[in-house]
Amino acid sequence: MASIIGxxxxxxxxxxxxxxxxxxxxxxxxxxPAFSAYRTKASAGADNGTVGTIVxxxxxHDIGGCFNTSDGKFTAPIAGIYKFDVLGFYCxxxxxxxxxxxSYFSYLYKNNNIxxxxxxxxxxSSDTHYIPANINLTLQLAANxxxxxxxxxxTYYYADQTRGYATFSGYLVG
Length: 174
Description:
The chain is an all-beta fold. It contains no helices and 17 strands. The strands form 4 sheets. It has a 5-stranded antiparallel β-sheet, with no helix packed on it. Strands 7-8-15-11-12 form a 5-stranded antiparallel β-sheet, with no helix packed on it.
């Protein structure tokens, strides 16, 4: 014989809601760590390309306060499996010019160690364009592990005043 437990809300003993179940059976986990950040530049013109650690300076959401818009780093509040996505474009220089034939590298770091590499060699002709710089990865993290995104010293990552050119997001899978 099957057992049935009927609840609408699961709470910690301190009163924090961990999950709710609506009448259709959908489960909402409102405190699951998750963030979505993006990078923009304050003004048009020069300084659209950045090298090194990329600081995503705006947030759509940051459940759990685990992403820092000052240094571009995510700190895992609890151990678990996390999914991360970085979407953007490489550019040629600090002015944000379109790429020319060259090698372009970016990295996802866990505790300052590379865990994923994105590489693109644009051999093209004399044409120039912006090369996608995307990384998608699922990682097992311990509490306080730090994740950030960066580029090689000679690879620039593009951003301008328009939202959406450079994004970084992640969430606890479970």
